[in-house]
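Running this now, will post back.
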Amino acid sequence: MCYYVVHVIIEKSRAEEWLHWMQQEHLPEVMATGAFSAYLIFRKYLLPNEASSDNCHYVIQYHCLSRQHLDRYLTEHAPSLRRKHEEKFRGAFQATRELWQAIEKSQQCESS
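Update: finished.
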């Protein structure tokens, strides 16, 4: 199992607009490529000892159907999708992208 992980840091003043655009436009376009079976979006909460900042941090974790699907996505679809993102939020965000391999998945725990 592999996961394509995108970490986005976006200015707080644009974060709500960005998240709405991601959910309504970008993520449906990414999923329509057929490269991924699911995704999760995470928003970072600050720990008690962390200072507040002018940015919001998000992680999008895409579950890849296979490495071949991801490679096809990166060559055939990612450039145009990234370009749309850059045009809409130019200067307001930073993004990093990584590929992760799942090593182990825990069994579902029953709550008491």
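The two ends are 31 Å apart (CA to CA). More later if anyone needs it.
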